[in-house]
Amino acid sequence: MRAAGARADLAQRRVRAARAAAGRAEGRREAHRRFQGMLHDEVSTALQAISLPGVPVARLREAASGAVAALAAAPAGPGRKARTDLAAVVRALRPPPGTVLAIEATGPALVPPEVADAAAGAAREALRNVEEHAGARSVRLRLRGGPPDRPGAAADGEFTLSITDDGVGFAAGELAASSVGLRRSVIRRMAAVGGHAEVRSAPGHGTTVRLEWRPPAAGPAADEADEAETGAGTVGGPAGGPTGVPADTLGRMRAAVGDVRRPLAAVCLPFLTAMGVIAAIHTARTPGTGPLLVWYALLTALTVALLLRAASGIPALVAGAACAFAVAGALGSFLVLPLASLADYTSWPVGAVTPLLTLLVIVRPAWEALTALALEQVGIAVLVATGPPIAPSVGATMALLLPALLSPALGVITGLALGRTVARLGGVTARAEADRSASLATEAARRAREELHQGRLADLGQEILPFLAATGSGRCAPDDPGVRDRARLLAGAVRDEIHLPGVLDRTVRELLSAARRAGCVVTIQSDSDDPHPPAFLRLLLTTALTCAPTPRELVLTVNAAAGVARASLVVLPGDEWRARALREAVAGAGAGTGVVVADSATSTWVEADVRAS
């Protein structure tokens, strides 16, 4: 028992560590998605607006202040019980300049905060697209609880939010797969919280963005009392449910004692051994009872075989056949034993079935072993009632019969009680362990979200956050040409960060800004949010930008798939010294397979397949 408990403790520690690691990874993924959306929706939009002439100063300050607030806000983790009224959030949305916004939101739509944030962010991005591309006169927001085929079902948290404009529209094929606004800020934002986003448009017929979300199905919870009665219930959901609590009796026993075979062996094997000694003694004393000893040897072998199978489960057909063999042998023993042998140990076959039935009552549904026990008890009673008298009176007969009947019954009932107690304690242990693991995973996810948020904020906060704060507070005049130029450079840095999250350090960002100030057109693009090889990409950019003269144009494209990132760098015009430096840098970095560095009068380009980090 102590060894089993030690193994169980070790397994639980490993489970806690695994769940905490999974929580940290999920927390980082969630924080990454939220930060990417915030960069695009708040920071990049504010910087682009500041860089444009003719935008009202009040609006620029409001956008800058909103971006600062979004950057400073710590990411909130998902809560099980907290709810946000999405209808109130939708009603607070502002119309794009020059349009009339009609909002139709009937009744509350209570959803988790992270879902409300995702829907509101996606809606704001859709409204920004209306402002920048649609040329619309009016926009209509319509919020309905429930999916489109179940209008009005707001109580369960489901909703459909549509944003429709009467603008110029576009052909469906014109929606590029790499469109940052719609792909990352609308479609992926909803997908990240388990929702769905769809964009419908046609030239001359406006555009509709439809956002849908419904809560995930919860697994059924079984009542503990029902589990105690049936011996096989569900806790939380199928296969242990979402909380990870074992759903069956055997699983809950394993949670309490580890390998159930050892405690079962401690119960059954001594009884089998003692009964074997009794069987051998009485077989030697009672002529003609040799077949009973053979039956007991087979019963012992069967019990041991089932004991070895106890950890993985015993099939119902095998358990039924074992019960039939045991009961038939016990009742058949009276073909060679007199009924009067019930008064002493000569009737040992009656109690010989106890280890087998005790084993089955613990690891199988209780009714199977109890039915077999009842059949044996009834069979003995019938034999006594129809056979020759074993005592001079009914009372004396009962006095002789009861000990024989109670011998197997007490063992089976005791096994039933012990098994149920261990299973119940195991269920409590498993539920407590699942709750503890869930708490650890939640805390690990929260810390991971905060660490990623603060880390990326520290990178951007060295220049972007102070600039936005100064603009929002009025310390910087947004209509100053110098401020607009700086906003343009910072907007480029933010776009770089959106496409290559966490890759660019301060040195590379300064090189990119210097190149842009010198007139270089820098384009950085990526087709996915998959992890990128940061060291290799930094090496490419640093090498290309530190070789004089400043290029006229630089394009870095990253396509990531299946753990491999294909990096393509094109620098215009071509330069022999830059090509040589890039070739040496790539060779020294051990970039991997498919590395090509080429140079011509018009361009220098590098292409390499690198394992993503």
TrEMBL record:
A GO term, aspect molecular function: kinase activity
Membrane-spanning intervals of the chain: 263-281, 293-310, 317-339, 345-363, 370-391
SUPFAM superfamilies cross-referenced by the UniProt entry: ATPase domain of HSP90 chaperone/DNA topoisomerase II/histidine kinase (SSF55874)
Chain intervals with Gly residues compositional bias: 233-243
Keyword Cytoplasm attributed: no
Any GO BP annotation: phosphorelay signal transduction system
Protein name: Histidine kinase/HSP90-like ATPase domain-containing protein
Stretches assigned to the Histidine kinase/HSP90-like ATPase domain: 123-214
Domain of life (superkingdom): Bacteria
InterPro entries: HATPase_C_sf, HATPase_dom, Sensor_HK_TwoCompSys
Ranges where the record places region Disordered: 217-246
Record keyword Transferase present: yes
Keyword terms, alphabetized: Kinase, Membrane, Transferase, Transmembrane, Transmembrane helix, Two-component regulatory system
